[in-house]
Design a protein that fits this description.
The protein is of the alpha+beta class and about 450 residues long. It has three domains: about 210 residues, Type I PLP-dependent aspartate aminotransferase-like (Major domain) (Aspartate Aminotransferase, domain 2, 3-Layer(aba) Sandwich), CATH 3.40.640; about 100 residues, Aspartate Aminotransferase, domain 1 (Alpha-Beta Complex), CATH 3.90.1150; about 50 residues, Alpha-Beta Complex (Molybdopterin biosynthesis moea protein, domain 2), CATH 3.90.105. It contains 15 helices and 18 strands. The radius of gyration is 23 Å and the shape is globular.
Length: about 450
Amino acid sequence: MTQKAMNRYIKNGIEQFVHKGMEPWHMPGHKRRRQSKAAVSSLYDAIDAACEWDVTELPMTDDYLRPEGFFEDALEELKNVYGSRASFYLVNGSTSGLHIAIAACAKRVRKSASERGTGILLAAVNCHRSVFNAARLLGLEVVSVDVRKLEGGMLFGGADAGKIADALMELDDLGRVCAAVITSPTYEGVCSDIRSIKNLLDGYGIPLIVDEAHGAHMVFSEELKALSGLSSGADIVVQSLHKTLPSPTQTAIMHVMSDRLVDMVREYVEVFLSSSPSFILLAAMERAVADADEHRRRFDEWVRRVRVFKERVNAGIKDIRVFVPEAGVIYDDTRIVLMPESGSGLYLADCMVKAGVAIEMAEPGYVVLISTVADTEEDFERLYDMLKEALRISCSGEDTEPWYGGHTPDADIEALKGSSAMNDIYAYPPGNPIALKGEVIDDGVVDKIKEYMNAGKKIYGI
């Protein structure tokens, strides 16, 4: 069956306006003119070229926050592609989507239980710090929900319906719970059983928000789409397009799958998004979604390439193991997690950087690489050779530079024990809090800080 081509409303709308040739006595400040006449050979030249298409809200264009023209058509098309009740392009990254989603759910609780006191947000402990920041902004109480650990506690597994049920049993007023937020997939590619969690929460009337920042690609693959919150009943799903689709940094997308939340989400889109969103970023997101929608077969071909690569590494490169989850773990096979059989994951990262590989993240026990549909067979061949070179560097003991410039302010970490954290304490990436502001720093927090410091990883918030 041939996939219907997605209409490019934003592209067409911008082009129609620019081609009118009107003199720009309005924003943006570059006036759609190149500041340099040089050919495109540098970053500034490329910026100048992009500025020719950078327009803003005018009567002749459209207003993204109050769409009546091509943006209205574009959002309707977006909703149809994903099968949502409403979908929104986000120029402020997934962070803004999570803030919008949580605010919308919090308003729902305030409207129905205004006399009950502070709203409660259930949040898996491995949620991104933006979730906890949203709770702080909105005056919500956070109830953290533990998640399963894998590889001897080395990395987070998926959120678990049983642990969420346990957390709910501890609460005296479930009417104060505005939503539950989980991260699926994790940075390492582990997914949650979203359907089971959704079924549990439906019994309490609690919406489920899925931070699917690292899973924007899944819905386009027959192999992976069942793992997405869009296919598993989540009420709101937030995705970072720039992480796994060919889209610029800070572009993201949010899908509302529940009719009861559409109006409240739309209200908070106006609150949290810039009143002057970049038309270039909006057009780039439209193109990324359209290309993915029209070439879905590429995604399954890519999934198979990654699987072949992993098998080849595990069979052909000693002392480096590609993480393959145990039976029963739901997993996004496109994520590549490399585990040294001996030594530190951060040192392996240093060796990989010296071998020419720019990595996404390193932890004491492993290295994370992000593969996308843009990676070719040749890219995987080069990566395989670079892994062998990294292993050679590791075995030879050659000097390397810390891959992330690890530095933590001097502090007597033991002296922090028993005190309350004055800030969120976290390593970035991935941005999961080690301790939240106000939380008592116990032995576990101190041990985790020391582990990261000894490995040379940068710690924020001390």
